[in-house]
Amino acid sequence: MTVNMLRDRVGELLRTYPPATTDPAAFHRAQFDAGLAWVHFPEGLGGLGLSRDLQDVVDSELRAAGAPVNPSSHIGIGVGMAAPTILAFGTPEQRSRYLRPLWLGEEVWCQLFSEPGAGSDLAAVTTRAARDGDDWVVNGQKVWTSSAHVARFAILLARTDPDVPKHRGLSYFVLDMSAPGVEVRPLRQITGEAEFNEVFLTDVRVPDTARLGEVGDGWKVANATLSSERVAIGGDQAHREAGMISKVAALWREHPEVRSAALHDRVMERWVAAEVFRLMGARLRQRLATGAPGFEGAAMKVMFADLAQSISLLELELDPDGALRYDDWTLVRPASVDFLGRGPGYRYLRAKGNSIEGGTSEVLRNIVAERVLGLPGEARVDKDVPWKKVPR
């Protein structure tokens, strides 16, 4: 299919479902069924089997016509992590069942990976899944789970074989969050919100038909999810001076009284770093068009965390009055994070989590060092030891 043919397909969608008079939900259903949701997905699953970069053509045409924004942009775990994993490892039945409502935002997803004793060392998870006929019985605890309080499904990493080394004894499941035995508790953060949760799993039954990948291949499947997650966090398309740097740039332009030579150097250094990050994201999206995400996402995730924390601190220095105020400490449980819709104090505090969530910056630096730069790996004394024999 040529670019002109793709534009014709978008034009047909817009003529049949005029954005000004069509219900947004109906428009998005038609967009998915026309293969214009994610054009690199197969036909029948919201795509056309085309190159990934052609989605930019579709999105540009839709924006120019005033088409409604897909609600899935606010449900990043489903679109950014679950969907690529289901596409890569799911059965035809799983793809047909989950992908359409996921993209439409009709079903929210969360990620049950991290545990109190298995965060940076994700392969050390202790949540167990024991086979019982056609089901698996799951027991354990997960933590730092975004959107668990509104999620319909979860991607779950659990230990299915304690007799082999930790990386080889894991399996990967889709968990129904409404199943008996699933308990979600809020975790209040330094921001005052309870955006994260801890999830307790007590004798939760998961059918074997909800498994993604082979038994014991959970680490392989989870790594594919994590690669997609880091791309989703670090590789969004953005225009120049988008995101948190926009707040600093506006303060610098609008308040000359706070300017100094030292601050000028720091503002320029962060502005340039933000622009480098944006251009790296553009290059990453070009590489994605030719294949699956690589380790570039890990490097961009580290940069994203560093930028968010340093820029939010700089914003407080440029706005000292704002630094002394906080807009709202009310305990709420938001379904998504809005960095730009809150005050500078919120941005500064919330950015502290950016170097933890989606893989800690320390672990991601190890990944870049070992797998990209080829530096010697750290000693891992438990690598070939059966999980049940590792001291804990």
Describe the protein's architecture and organization.
A hairpin with an 8-residue loop joins strand 6 and strand 7. The radius of gyration is 22 Å and the shape is globular. The chain contains twelve helices and eight strands. The protein is α+β, with helices and mostly antiparallel strands. It starts with a helix and ends in a 20-residue tail after the last helix. The model has no long low-confidence stretch (mean pLDDT 90). Strands 1-4-5-8 form a four-stranded mixed beta sheet.
What is the gist of this entry?
By secondary structure, the protein is α+β, with helices and mostly antiparallel strands. It contains twelve helices and eight strands.
Any key phrases for this structure?
four-stranded mixed sheet; four-stranded antiparallel sheet; 12 helices; alpha+beta; 41% helix; 392 residues; single chain; 8 strands
Over all CA atoms, what is the radius of gyration?
22 Å
Q: Tell me, briefly, the overall form.
A: globular
Please report the distance between the alpha carbons of the first and last residues: 56 Å
Class by alpha and beta content: alpha+beta
Order of helices and strands: HHHHHEEEEEEEEHHHHHHH
Give the helix level as a range of percent.
Answer: 40-55%
Strand order of the largest sheet: 1-4-5-8
Counting DSSP H or I runs of 4 or more residues, the number of helices is 12
The count of strands amounts to 8
Proportion of strand residues: 5-15%
Largest sheet entry:
4 strands, mixed
Calculate the mean pLDDT score and round it: 90
In terms of per-residue confidence, which ranges show pLDDT below 50 for 5 or more consecutive residues?
A: none
